[in-house]
Each structure stands twice: as structure tokens, then as C-alpha cells.
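**Reference record**
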Amino acid sequence: MRITAAMLAIISGWYIFQRLTAGNAYASALQQPTTFLGFDIPDFNRGDTMPELRYFTAAEFGEWWPLMSTDFLTKLDEFRHRLGVPVRISPATGSLGRESGLDTSQHNVDMWGEVRAGDVMFIGVDLETAYKVAKEVGFTGIGAYPDWKPTQGMHLDVRQAPLALWSGILESGKQVYKSIQQAFV
């Protein structure tokens, strides 16, 4: 089932209600839903708060900030720290969140109830080094893209499945998926 704008408005309204009534005995006594139309939703009174980040601001995540996975954000911040160079969110549409119905992309808030992935860009570090750092930090989905514009980049995610690795290589004007090692050639 696709979550519509009206459904997201209801979820957003619940979030605002929770924030405005924090500490209110009446509000605390209300039964809080943990799912909405079969999707898990964060319970903001359970301690699901956004982490303090050293290198990123909420503005860099735009409208997706309230829906970002805290696990993803924490790992992304540590990735930036260990990489030692600036890391920016790709300017491409869909590089963070997407509303894609039943698509299993880790970017898809319809499927996961949060944004578990991001596409990032950086200069000054080769993709193989960045891959090793991403793996050390604990990302479980890592895609290397040497041909992105304006600069190379990576897809990083915190999927629950076993480690997934790939590369997207430009061949004859089309992106072709291959082993991650192909991006390091």
C-alpha cells in the first residue's frame, strides 16, 4: 500500500502533537501507536531522537531530516570523520528519501518508515579507501560510482540483510551494475 500525502500529514501531526505535549500527563496517558497502515513509526517518547552530528546539519537532509534513520546518520558522521575529507549529499533527486510504494530500496520511506540510505560525494579520497572506511563504520549496503557527476560517489545504507556490495559503471552512456572491485580499476 502506498502512503499518500494525507497519511504523511497524519503522521506529521502525531509527531507535532507529541512534541507539543511532552511532559503533559494527559498526553502521556494516551496509547501511542507503533504502526500506521502496517508500517512501523517512531515513538518520539521512547527516546528516538536525532543524534548530535559533528559534520552534518539538518538542513543538508532537507525535508527528509525528520525521517532519517539515526543509525544511518551516526554511521555517516563517523564515515566523514574517518575519511578526513568533506562529504556532501548528492544533489541528484532521490539521493536521500523516496516515496516508492513497495520498492525495497533503502531510500524508500514507504517501505521502511525511515530513510536508511543516502548517496554521497567527496573528493580527495579514492573509492577503494572510501569503501574500506564505509565497511569499517558498519554500513551494510555499499555501492561505488566512479562516473557520477560532478564527482565520484557512493551509495551507503544500513539494511538489515547481509552485506550488499556493487558498483555502477558507465558503459556506452548507460549505468551498468558490476562487482564493487570494478569501481577501483
The chain has two domains: 1-49, 51-184.
